[in-house]
Design goal:
By secondary structure, the chain is mostly helical. It is elongated. The termini are far apart. The chain has helices spanning 18-68, 74-115, 119-152, and strands at 2-6, 13-17. The protein has a domain at 1-69. Helices cover 83% and strands 7% of the residues. The chain has a two-stranded antiparallel sheet.
Length: 153
Amino acid sequence: MLIATTSQSQQDTVNIPTSAALGLSMTIMGALIIGVGKFVVDQALRRWSDRLTNLEQENRRLELQIGKAEIVSPKQIEILEQRFNNLGGALQDTQKLFQDTQKDLIKLRQEISTDYVRREDWIRFSSTLEAKMDALNRKIEDRFDTLTQRFSK
């Protein structure tokens, strides 16, 4: 297949083979892709370079601050060590108190399991007790009725 192009000043026809046109378009597309890729890589490198510059400036600023920092005196170090030791002792006391509380809780659970009467057991017990009291009440009423009949005659 041939591609025909015409020039406006001359009415000549130029025939370009399809493979040549395809090759030319592929070359243009490749150059375009390479150009876009180069642009993206340049932008990424610029961002990394800016970030590295910022980190270097921050590092210099921190180094200057460290250089200007106060030197801690031995007395201040001693006070800090005392406070740290006091905190360590308080932590040990708290751990001991926690362990004691945990032991007391375990004992309480054991006592509750042996002394606790479940609701169902209480309902069964109270029902049985009420039935016995009702039976005893009927017996007493029956005896009272028989006694009142004997004395009323």
